[in-house]
Amino acid sequence: MATLLHIHASPRDESVSAQMAKAFFEEVRRLRPADKTVSLDLFKTDLLPFDAPAAKAKYAVLAGQTPQGQAEQTWAKVIRYVDQLKAADAVVLSAGMWNFSIPYRLKQYIDIIVQPGLTFKYSAQTGYVGLVTGKPITLLLARGGKYAPGTPTAAYDFQRPYLETIFRFIGFEDLRVALCESTLETPPEGLPGLVSQAQEQARALARQLCKA
To answer: How far apart are alpha carbons 105 and 93 in whole angstroms?
Structure first.
């Protein structure tokens, strides 16, 4: 039995990324019914604010020290988020594009988990090394426009490149993407077909995961 962590980063249950995730996990349940899914809905979770105590703890760790007082208590909460991520055998992230980037709650979550000594380390000899290894991450992404490489709009895409970069930074090497584009540019009568194609992409990635 494997444990899958689903990081859901949309406030709308009917969003395209949510529909992609629904298709993905339906396929997983069909193929591997014993697998366990842990859901982390970022818009329904009281995420830790990365405020002064959290920043103080982070800089203490960067300096090779142990956080003290309130900073230590806050750091313990950070560790719980990281432990949840590391405990999963596979991670699935569903998110739409907001203002060419990612939803603010997803950025907050990333700012919580990307921490020295927990999800990455650094030395002058090796540089940065990710510590979340040995598991795949699947990105189920939706956006209103098209941002194909080499096109004028490619420079506006701060969603997929950022997510791929930051998760590779913390150690994910097996990274898979299903992408639904033009959700706002597609006429209403064409949207169901577009979503259906995106859901089939998601199912295909679920089948890949279940065969691994």
So the answer is: 13
Phi-psi sector, 134: left (phi>0), alpha (psi -120 to 50), beta:
left
CA 18 from centroid of its chain's CA atoms: 13
Q: Specify the amino acid at residue 160.
A: R
Express each pLDDT in 139-167 by its tens digit: 999 999 999 999 999 999 999 999 999 99
CA distances from 125 to 47, 63, 119, 128, 168 (A): 35, 17, 18, 9, 19
Largest CA distance in the chain: 59
Give CA–CA dist 59/140, Å, rounded. 33
pLDDT in tens, 49-72: 999 999 999 999 988 899 999 999
Whether the full predicted model's pTM is greater than 0.85, yes or no, is yes
